[in-house]
Amino acid sequence: DVKVTQSSRYLVKRTGEKVFLECVQDMDHENMFWYRQDPGLGLRLIYFSYDVKMKEKGDIPEGYSVSREKKERFSLILESASTNQTSMYLCASSQISSGQGAQQPQHFGDGTRLSIL
Amino acid sequence: AQKITQTQPGMFVQEKEAVTLDCTYDTSDPSYGLFWYKQPSSGEMIFLIYQGSYDQQNATEGRYSLNFQKARKSANLVISASQLGDSAMYFCAMRGLNTGGFKTIFGAGTRLFVKA
Lengths: 117, 116
Description:
- The complex is a heterodimer of chains A (117) and B (116).
- With 117 residues, chain A is mainly β.
- Helices cover 0% and strands 51% of the residues of chain A.
- Chain A is built from no helices and eleven strands.
- Chain A has strands at 4-6, 10-13, 19-25, 31-38, 42-49, 56-57, 64-70, 73-78, 87-94, 107-108, 112-116.
- Chain A is globular.
- The model of chain A has no long low-confidence stretch (mean pLDDT 92).
- With 116 residues, chain B is an all-beta fold.
- Chain B is built from no helices and twelve strands.
- Chain B has strands at residues 3-5, 10-14, 19-21, 24-26, 32-39, 46-52, 60-61, 64-69, 74-79, 88-96, 105-106, 110-115.
- In chain B, the strands form three sheets. In chain B, strands 2, 5, 6, 10, 11 and 12 form a six-stranded mixed beta sheet that branches.
- In chain B, 35% of the residues are buried.
- The chains are: A mainly beta (117), B mainly beta (116).
């Protein structure tokens, strides 16, 4: 069965800390995504990656960076955490986006509720 | 620009009744896909149903069906015979299959409450 695993369900950090959110998928998917979810705003794309060591900015990349050293792992990094980054973070993966792959849904992890104090 | 609009922040439905969750979209891409996801209070996003813009028939998956009206740019989710376990957030999403590339955009979501 398809599985996307996020390292933490809940995380509390302090302002200014460097924060790492880890995501691992076991489906050999090419694409991986990081979203943040806030009430009334739905899911907003932070970064995505379509291959190892490749990354593209999403709609709200400011204050974040990502790393994809291996195909199965996609890390989100908050360089210097701020209180406005308190949110629910969701990782997702999907097959290639062309041809039949474009019809495939994204598979999501359980999410990480991050609080920055 | 692509956009998804879900105008119902919250909905109530009686158990065993049908409910329709609204979704309208805007895109300049001639070929696109529409998705619905369910998010229970536990947080995980669960894929429910997919509709391609060139599909001739409305998609159905068990108790879920998609009322796709291309001219109106709407893709409403219909849940038949609601169950208590259907209480959750529901998100409509879209991916442009030509110009959208890797990006899927999501609506703000509708929270559904099923009453016993």
